[in-house]
Structures are given as C-alpha cells and as structure tokens.
Amino acid sequence: MDYNTQREKLILPEYGRCIQNMVNYAKTIEDKAERQRCAFTIIDLMANMQEYSGNEDDFYQKLWNHLAYISNYELDIDYPVEIQHIDEQHIKRDIIPLPQKRIARRHYGAIIEAMAHKLEEMEEGEERFALVQLMANQMKRALANWNINALDDEKIMDDLTELTHGKIQMLPSEITLISDKELLNEIAQQGTKKNKKKK
To answer: Taken in order 47, 84, 23, 75, is the CA torsion positive or negative?
Structure first.
C-alpha cells in the first residue's frame, strides 16, 4: 500500500509530489528526444507555479537548476542553460503566491488546471498517458481531502475531460487509479502522523 509516510522525501516541496513524480518518470524514458520533450513540459508546469519579475533568463535558469536538483542530477538531457549545482542549505525558498485568477474547480487547485492546459497541447503518446495518470490520481487525492463522501472515479475522469476541454476522454478502467481503500488508509496515516506531532 502507498502510505504517505513510506513515500520518498520531496526534494523541493514547493513544487509538490506531482512534479517530483514527473521528474522520476522522465528519468526512466529511454528515448532521449522524448525525455527532452518531457523535461520541457515539466519546466512549463514549474513556471506556472511561480511568479517572476525582471530577467526572464534568470527565472528559467533557476527552474532548470531546480529540475536538475530534483532529479539528483541524473536526468540525461541537453540542458538549454549551464546547470549550477545547488547547495541544499543555501536554497532560497520562494513563497508561491496564491493564484489571483479564478479557479474553475477550487478543490483541485491551480496546478491541476495548469496541468490540464498542458495536456490539451500534448500529442497522444506515452508521455501524455503518464501525465494523465499522475493528474487523475492527484485529483482523486484532492477530492478526498475536500469531501471524502464525494469520491467517484467516473466524476474524476469527467472533470478531467471538462478541464481539458474534451481533449482527454478516458474511462477509469483505462488507467490505474488509487483505490478508495488505499486512499482512506493514506488519509488515516496522515491523521495519525499529525496527532503524533501535536503530542
């Protein structure tokens, strides 16, 4: 079972587990061109999570540095910038601002909307399928946190179709969604962990 306490530690928590999972997936892609495309997709999503002002080159330098760092410098791609290794103790933790734009489904959050927009642009293939699976499971976890009684795999896939303006149309049986039982166990584990911290 996939308990939160058993998952790997997030390397840069401000980007969340979805980004880390995508980076881990990118490292497994055998075709270098496909791996390169996947890296640019991840950078686009990371950029959507940050606000910047000033020099755009500096902003993307930071994102590529972060991507390399999240991958433990194991992502074999042609980086468009010279990667500067990061000393973890000297990372400037950026405060990710609350989104100013209206979110269609607030319980899913802004990152899910950003991922949905990215999915709309992607061609069908292994990379898009992997992102669909990551996104659908993240949506299910978000829905459970919002209202555990609202869990419905078909609703999640319907919402995904709507968020991608019909580009992604899949049945729950076509992907691997975390089971309700596993999800409830995850939530119970999180509650136990929080209670221990309070003591």
So the answer is: positive
**Terminal-residue alpha carbon distance, the chain:** 26
- The single residue listed with the structure tokens 């840069």 is 12
Q: How far apart are CA 172 and CA 186, in angstroms?
A: 20
Question: Measuring CA to CA, how many Å separate 150 from each of 107, 146, 156, 197?
Answer: 11, 8, 10, 29
| 31 φψ region: left (φ > 0), alpha (ψ -120 to 50), beta (else) | beta
Four-CA torsion 68, 74, 78, 82, nearest 10 degrees: 40
With a cut of 60, say whether residue 185 has pLDDT above it: yes
Whether residue 198 has pLDDT greater than 50: no
Residue-wise pLDDT for 38-86, tens only, equals 999 899 888 877 766 678 888 899 999 999 999 999 999 999 999 988 7
The tokens of 31 are what?
């075709």
Q: What is the largest CA-CA distance in the chain?
A: 51
Q: What is the pTM of this model?
A: 0.54
Region 107-120: mean pLDDT is 80
d(CA 67, CA 41) in angstroms, rounded, equals 11
143, 135 Cβ separation under 8 angstroms: no
Cα(44)–Cα(64) distance, integer angstroms: 11
Residue 10: per-residue pLDDT? 79
- The helix-helix angle for 16-28 and 110-121 (nearest 10°) equals 30
